[in-house]
Amino acid sequence: FINAGIAEQNLIGMSAGLARYGKIPFASTFAVFASGRAFEVIRNSVCYPKANVKIAATHAGITVGEDGGSHQSIEYIALISSLPNMTILVPADEKETIEAVKFAANYKGPIYIRLGRLNSEDIFDDDYSFQYGKGISIEEGNDCTIISTGIMT
């Protein structure tokens, strides 16, 4: 465990260096700072060389209401999804988060895991099996189709 403090560029740079020497670093910070402050380092040191860095971006979106606008992120997913070689995971509940982290640890290449701040309701049963890139039907119906991601599920 390395605490980089409020130095997100250094956090990502150190993670890229660790990945270069065979480690599997999980860098964690608020989503607004992971995408905003560290964007250039993620692009140049993680995504271009396909470094095996996992970014766990917490407090994503507007789930940090009382922390104010400086900690709320609405543009981060647009920034991160524009990066080459980046895989983005947006788990919906605790079970899927655990499965997504396991997947990330075994995946070779950069991964961004978007995590909210608030506790989420359980959506998936214990027999749920995470499959990257597959949609999941939560409930069947005939009136409309609702597509959601992450905590909106």
Task: Walk me through this protein's architecture.
The structure is a single chain. The longest helix has 13 residues, at 8-20. The chain has 5 helices and 4 strands; from the N terminus they run H-E-H-H-E-H-E-H-E. The protein has helices spanning 8-20, 31-36, 39-47, 76-81, 94-106; strands at 26-30, 54-58, 87-89, 111-114. The chain has a single domain (8-152), classed as Rossmann fold (3-Layer(aba) Sandwich), CATH 3.40.50.970. The chain is an alpha/beta fold and 153 residues long. Helix content is 31%, strand content 11%. The mean pLDDT is 87. It has a 4-stranded parallel beta sheet, with helices on both faces. Helix 1 runs parallel beside helix 3 (39-47).
How much helix, percentage-wise, in residues?
A: 25-40%
Beta percentage is: 5-15%
Runs in which pLDDT lies below 50 for 5 or more consecutive residues are: none
Q: Could you tell me the CATH topology label.
A: Rossmann fold
At the first level of CATH, the class is: Alpha Beta
Question: Main sheet, how many strands, which sense, barrel?
Answer: 4 strands, parallel
Average residue-wise pLDDT:
87
Keyword list:
153 residues; alpha/beta; Rossmann fold; 4-stranded parallel beta sheet; 5 helices; 31% helix; globular; THDP-binding; Transketolase-like_Pyr-bd; PDH/Transketolase; Transketolase family protein; thiamine pyrophosphate
Put the structure in a nutshell.
The chain has helices at 8-20, 31-36, 39-47, 76-81, 94-106; strands at residues 26-30, 54-58, 87-89, 111-114. By secondary structure, it is of the alpha/beta class.
